[in-house]
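Quick entry between incubations.
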Amino acid sequence: EPEVTQTPSHQVTQMGQEVILRCVPISNHLYFYWYRQILGQKVEFLVSFYNNEISEKSEIFDDQFSVERPDGSNFTLKIRSTKLEDSAMYFCASRAGTGGPGELFFGEGSRLTVL
Amino acid sequence: DAKTTQPNSMESNEEEPVHLPCNHSTISGTDYIHWYRQLPSQGPEYVIHGLTSNVNNRMASLAIAEDRKSSTLILHRATLRDAAVYYCIVSFTGGGNKLTFGTGTQLKVEL
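Done. Structure below.
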């Protein structure tokens, strides 16, 4: 069964450092998403991406965040200068996007710990 | 997205059916009803979705009220592996619209 894969599974970084979280969405999917979940809290939407551009972003997704699909297979989330409050599980998701409300496929997540 | 209301937690015994309710009184005509679940330490996982008619798949059934203001996710025979947080999400998902997760229902399954 096709799946969304994310790397790294866990990253520890110092405050102020740049972090890149990587995702390989399901092949032929057209819509890509990043969500995050702070420990014990809700899954929060960060950004959606389609046709090589951001289609929607939340208030959380400020200038410190960026997304990119550099090579047609990877989908990355960059945090330019990490803060303590960026510590969370980050989930990538993708959707086929053809014909109706298709299933959102999530990856297993990347746990980011900012010290 | 329309607001949804779910119980914070429910308990079930293994091998018994579980009915997880969701109220969504502000649903609009083009909104779909989605259910996802999140097992411990994993990403959310699709369970089922529907618009007006009841739906069945290998994981569960979705019963939608005639006025669409509420729905029920039915797990026919709960197992320990079904212990998870279940999210009911109401959203128009044309194109790439996002899904907005609430706090969901924590389902506990006991032997």
